[in-house]
Amino acid sequence: MLSFPNHNQIQNACLQTWKALGISVGSPFNQEETSVFLKFLLLEGLEYGEVRAWRVRKQSDTSVALRRRLEALLTDAQHAIRIGEGLKVLTGIPWDAVNRILSVSLYYRQRLIDVAMEAVLSEPLAPELCIKFDSTIQHDLSAILPGARNHAVLFASPVFFTNEFYPLAVDAYVHDSENYGNQQTNVLGVHTDWLTTDGKLTRILYLDFDKGRLVETDVELPIVPDSVNFLCLGRQEQEKHQAISERINCLQVNPSKVSMLADDKAETLAEWSALGLEVPAYQEISPGNLAKAFHFLDSFEEIVVKPNGATEGELVAFFQRSHPQARIALQHHLERCWEQGKAIAQQRRDGVLFRDPVSGKCHSLALRFNLTTNRVGGHRLESGYAQLGQDEQSPAACGQGGRIIPVDMALSSLSCGPAFGNQPFRLDPNDWSRIREQTERAASLFMGLMLIGLDVLLDHDLHGKIRPVFLEANPRPAGLSHSRLLVDDPMQPAINGVSLDLWGCLDSSRQGIGLV
User: How many whole angstroms separate alpha carbon 55 and alpha carbon 68?
Assistant: First the structure.
């Protein structure tokens, strides 16, 4: 008798699959649905406490160990299929085909592991991903992809990608339905490994709107994309962005060349300052230059240090001048940052915090705003979310153990920092107008970028006037599944979405007319 999978694990995986796919209990699984069952079966092989441990450790270097654990479980499951024990009591599943694909396709196995890892390490913010065994023939593709244009969302890191892809696909569908009455753009997820040397698509991931699921499949004939954008590129994302961008011969949202300024934190801050926008005092720290770093630490009560090219909270740390171990801790942190090149040190400027209305606990706060190109060549603030730190002394980033909440929730419960007794801080309509206007002015620096994410801190002066402080820009914005389309009154709850304007902008750009 095999220890995995046992009868209860098989039954639980079936129940979860039926529920997740919205199909009747007892229904047989077809080829693509079987991949969802196998994913849930792998998750059943992990103990509850083990899953929690992986989630806590998700930002450390544990992905290799988790992948090995899941691969061992998949091997056990395949053995059960091969000898006909346990699993084959489920009728309707093409077990011979499952055994064959697991035996001959290392890539299918890899993708099963990928989706299981994503389930362990991230929130379920997108529909289930069904992976097909066989290619989709050209005749069937037109029914699957009814739009006249193909937009590819290119990625290199599978974990978290479906959460980023899903809101873009929905936004495009909503835009097309409102403006044309039917779907015009097929939004396709495409791993960089699925590209031919001349930029065609050999495998795609798409949203099946009728069934409410994501589907991944090889295609019989490579697809020529009409436009692309870049997300979830993983480690060395800037280098990957450049290499892929140079291979693509179609319209690009944020080509590598026009993304370089946004990828350079120090240069971006200098340009923002020249525009009259408020930025934190900052200093680039070249590898080995501890003297400059210590001088900067001595100049401010508290500083923030991170790699100059990092994004999404990677290696961000706070250092207080008064702490007795500050210099030693700063040196150790800089050595890690310098592995990626120059570091950047900044004065900490988030004088306005988020106060949890239930616990009363204060958290550091950073606003992420997504902006898109508008008809006059500038940018319009269209969506966003708020990032919180674990507490007021931790960076406001999910990668540092923080969390994300809607903008309206954050702005309705603000607090001044400890220097002002953590008193409640109320945002008025003029404050929001100023934040929006300055944010759109900050984005105007990045001509040629159709979609950009800006991180904005909130500070205040001695008279209680809000002062937006601009921190950094990202030409490959993440956290899109948390974004909500902002309305004139930011205190009002908003619907989920990233950008409707982007799809009109792409349409106009393809037609060679003014942006809409």
Answer: 16
Query: Considering only CA atoms, which of 369, 461, 471 is closest in space to residue 410?
Result: 369
Average pLDDT for 27-55:
87
Q: Are 427 and 414 in contact (CB under 8 A)?
A: yes
Residue pLDDT, tens place only, 23-37: 999 999 998 999 999
Distance set, CA 145 to CA 30, 88, 354, 408 (Å): 20, 34, 44, 36
Q: Could you tell me the pLDDT band of residue 516, with boundaries at 50, 70 and 90?
A: very low
**CA 144 to each of CA 188, 217, 219: distance values in angstroms, whole numbers, following the listed order:** 11, 11, 11
Q: In angstroms, rounded to a whole number, what is the distance separating the alpha carbons of residues 507 and 510? A: 5
Residues in CB range of 291: below 8 A, 6 or more apart: none
At residue 490, φ and ψ (nearest 5 deg) are: -70, -15
CA distance linking residue 125 with residue 128, whole number of Å: 9
How far apart are alpha carbons 492 and 483 in whole angstroms?
Answer: 14
- The domains located in the chain, with CATH, are 7-121 (no CATH), 138-252 (no CATH), 254-263+349-516 (3.30.470), 281-348 (3.30.1490.20)
The string of DSSP codes covering 441-463 is: HHHTT-TT-SEEEEEEEEEE-TT
- How many other CB atoms sit within 10 Å of the CB of residue 136? 19
Task: Extract the tokens encoding 66.
Answer: 């988790």
Comparing CA positions, the residue from 514, 515, 507, 512 lying closest to residue 179 is: 507
Separation of alpha carbons 51 and 254, rounded Å: 37
Contact 189, 130 (CB under 8 A): no
Q: Contact, 319 vs 330, CB < 8 A?
A: yes
Question: Is the sign of the CA dihedral 441, 446, 452, 453 positive or negative?
Answer: negative
Q: Which of 446, 466, 447 is nearest to 456 (CA)?
A: 466
CB within 8 Å of 439: residues ≥ 6 apart: 369, 371, 381, 454, 456, 468, 470
Question: Residue 468: beta bridge partners?
Answer: 458
Stated as kind and residue range, the H or E segment containing 260 is: helix 256-263
The pLDDT score that the predictor gives to residue 60 is: 47
pLDDT at 384 over 90: yes
- One-letter identity of residue 66: L
Query: Over 60: is that where the pLDDT of 322 sits?
Result: yes
Query: What is the pLDDT, as a whole number, of residue 249?
Result: 92
Contact 264, 308 (CB under 8 A): yes
DSSP-derived secondary structure letter, 136? B
Residues 193-230: pLDDT tens digits?
999 999 999 999 999 999 999 999 999 999 999 999 99
